[in-house]
Amino acid sequence: MATTSQPDANLTGTNYHETIILAEEIHKYYELGETRVHALRGASVEIARGEFVTIMGASGSGKSTFMNILGCLDKPSSGRYLLEGVEVSSLSKKELAAIRNRKIGFVFQGFNLLSRTTALENVELPTLYARISKAEGEKRSREALALVGLGDRITHFPSQLSGGQQQRVAIARALVNRPSILLADEPTGNLDSRTSVEIMDIFQKLNDEGLTIVLVTHEPDIAQFAKRSIQFRDGKIRRDERNQNRPLASEVIKNLPALED
Amino acid sequence: MDLLAILRIAMRALARNKMRSVLTMLGIIVGVGAVIAMLGVGQGARQTMQEQIQAMGSNLLFVGAGTVTRSGMHMGWGSTKSLTYTDMLAILRECPAAHAVAPGSSSSGQVVFGHDNWATRLNGTEPQYFDIRSWSFVEGSSFTQNDVEMSANVAVIGETVRKNLFGATDPVGQTIRINNLPFRVTGVLSPKGTSAAMGDDQDDIILVPLTTLQKKITGQPWLRWIMVSAVSRQGSYAAQQQITSLLRDRHRIREGDDADFFVRNLADMADVADEASRVMTLLLASIASVSLIVGGIGIMNIMLVSVTERTREIGLRMAIGATEGNVQQQFLIEAVVLSLMGGITGIIFGLGASYVITQALGWPVLISPLVIAIAVVFSMAVGVFFGFYPARKAAQMDPIEALRYE
């Protein structure tokens, strides 16, 4: 088992050719009044197309800051971050917004769906900021909802959906602009264990179809479904390893007892 | 992002808090409504005043006998005895801008018909007076020049006098008693209504031949006034100057001394009245527009609340690719939709209010399309102006902080 802070090329398998995320010596400081918080202290990681990576770590370990940088919501104080070969830290705010729109799909712990807005319209939201027609946006949104198994719920409002269903709407929204990577920040944090496994099943299936996924979690049960685990501590990557014998979520569900009400 | 999509988002956001949106709009509704109503009523008043002055004849000049000061006491206009019939003839002869003239003298009298009596103004003049003032008859006709030469006891009465003395009876050919002298009524003048410029009832009048009044009632051979019509409205200014210099000359008034007469130009009066009503309208409209500003502040307030409430939504929109410009546009359009909807509702209310007010006063309803266009543009501008700061605040949020906002 590898415990280096650098990903080991030997462990990557046959589908590991194209680097999609390349972060080198990322540092991030925050000025909090008089004190300077050093949130990231030289994190380096390389993620290839088709990988399924979980980022773990205690709160304050820098994993959220690192996610924000990967998601182009924040810029590193120093170091290089290349997304599909593009140096992100040199881009303007407007260009970053375009990258978030087209190359990155976000899934949040709290779903962040617009209330009193149907599932379909929630999913359509990113297409409004992309240069695609209304008709094309709607078509893609229907497809994305069908992909997460909600093809029959498109006119439902978030209040009419269960937590798991709401998160699936959020996943459909993240997929609608066909991003290069999916970034999920504690996507199962608000869900019960069975629903969590269902969501992981969706992630595994999407990953099987070639989607690159980076997922932040603090639950080892969830992290085991990914192909690779990265552990943060004190702003640095402490562990980066391939998961051996990762379970299939679809199999795990079968063995879970159905919830009795 | 196309405008239609933004408009849909804005409408939905406003529909989410219907009560709040309507109350916010109310400020704009009241503001725009008040401005529209004030402009409408003001325009109506102005138009009415202009029509009345026009009805008096806009190329009319009024030459009045002046005031004299005896032992330090002003005796009021018409107290001089220097304005004469030959002055009038001289005006007609020597002032090229004067088209027609009519002499006049005034008194007051008690008029009796049957058991009814009425106190009214009594004017003596000549028949051309009615042409100069373009005053027509509803019944009968004027006395004639022959009546003037004969000092005949004939009279023309105004509508108010007819109403008070005759009621349903046809007055033409009837005999009335003025200061105990019998007069035969030859005609009834068409009603002119209350003068907007002077505020008196123009129909409360009796006109008799000048010579009759001078010889049989007042015993004064001089004139109190001369009515002059100028060749045109523009010509009335020239006529005013010509008459002034002619009469100063004839009355031997030295350079620098006060004249013993005055010449009043109705075109001037029309301008003064017009200016006065315009200033009044503007004053009312600017007071009303203060409430529009208050309404705008209401919009700013609600938009700030809305931006804070929707912090997470803003964060989400930014995370999925909205630029600062997109977010700013969204909130700006929301503010403009709010103010524009208020503005349009306000226009409808304002039109209704000015219709009711002008109907009650018997004025014409006058709202020009320009005023409505200005109201629409202005309410939009209020939305942009007061929506800008909240929209800017939304656009400058940090998406990470916004997503974490509870």
Question: Helices, strands, pairings?
Answer:
The complex is a heterodimer of chains A (261) and B (406).
Chain A: E1 19-32, E2 35-48, E3 52-56, H1 63-70, E4 78-83, E5 86-87, H2 93-102, E6 104-107, H3 119-128, H4 134-147, H5 163-175, E7 181-185, H6 193-208, E8 212-216, H7 220-223, E9 228-233, E10 236-242, H8 249-255
Parallel strand pairs in A: 3-8, 3-9, 6-7, 7-8
Antiparallel strand pairs in A: 1-2, 1-4, 4-5, 9-10
Chain B: H1 3-16, H2 18-56, E1 60-65, E2 69-70, E3 73-74, H3 85-94, E4 98-113, E5 116-125, H4 128-132, E6 137-140, H5 145-150, E7 154-157, H6 159-165, E8 175-178, E9 181-189, E10 205-209, H7 210-218, E11 225-230, H8 235-250, E12 261-265, H9 266-309, H10 311-319, H11 324-361, H12 369-395, H13 399-404
Parallel strand pairs in B: 5-10, 7-9
Antiparallel strand pairs in B: 1-11, 1-12, 2-3, 4-5, 4-8, 4-11, 6-9, 7-10, 8-9
What would you note in describing this structure?
The complex is a heterodimer of chains A (261) and B (406). In chain A, helix 4 crosses helix 5 (163-175) and helix 5 packs parallel to helix 6. Chain A is an alpha/beta fold. Chain A has helices spanning 63-70, 93-102, 119-128, 134-147, 163-175, 193-208, 220-223, 249-255; strands spanning 19-32, 35-48, 52-56, 78-83, 86-87, 104-107, 181-185, 212-216, 228-233, 236-242. The model of chain A is unreliable at 1-16 (pLDDT under 50). Helix content of chain A is 31%, strand content 26%. In chain A, the strands form 2 sheets. In chain A, strands 6-7-8-3-9-10 form a 6-stranded mixed β-sheet, with helices on both faces. Chain A has a domain at 51-73 and 97-254: Rossmann fold. In chain B, the strands form 2 sheets. In chain B, strands 4-5-10-7-9-8 form a 6-stranded mixed beta barrel, surrounded by 4 helices. Chain B has helices at 3-16, 18-56, 85-94, 128-132, 145-150, 159-165, 210-218, 235-250, 266-309, 311-319, 324-361, 369-395, 399-404; strands at 60-65, 69-70, 73-74, 98-113, 116-125, 137-140, 154-157, 175-178, 181-189, 205-209, 225-230, 261-265. In chain B, strand 8 (175-178) and strand 9 form a beta hairpin. Chain B is 57% helix and 18% strand. In chain B, helix 9 packs antiparallel against helix 11, helix 9 runs parallel beside helix 12 (369-395) and helix 11 (324-361) runs antiparallel to helix 12 (369-395). Chain B folds into 2 domains: 3-52 and 272-404, no CATH class; 81-259, no CATH class. Chain B is α+β, with helices and mostly antiparallel strands and 406 residues long.
